[in-house]
Amino acid sequence: xxxxxxxxxLIESPQAxxxxxxxxxxxxxxxxxxxxxxxxxxxxxxxxxxxxxxxAKAALAxxxxxxxxxxxxxxxERKPNATPERIxxxxxxxxxxxxxxxxxxxxxxxx
Length: 111
What we know:
By secondary structure, this protein is mostly helical. It has helices at 14-22, 25-37, 55-66, 84-94, 104-109. It starts with 13 loop residues before the first helix and ends with a helix.
C-alpha cells in the first residue's frame, strides 16, 4: 500500500478560508467531514460553533434591561354600536335622489 504525505498548507490558506466561508453550508459540512475522516486537523474557520444562546438572545436581553417598561397589552374599550337612528340616517343619505337610478352595484347587492 502506498503512503502519501499530506500537508494542510492549502486548506489553511487565506484563499481556501475565503472560499469555504462564502460557500454553501453543505460544502463546509463536507469539508469538515472529509478532514475528520482523514484525521486531519480542522482549521479554525471550519470549526463548529459552540452550542448555546445565540447573539440575538443576548441583544434582546440587553434591550429589555434598557427598556423595562412593558408594552401595553390591554386593548382600549370598544366603541358603542351605532343607534338605529344613525343607521337610518346613513341609509337615507346613501339612497339615490328622486328620479335618479341607483348604481348597478346597489341594484344587485342591496336588493
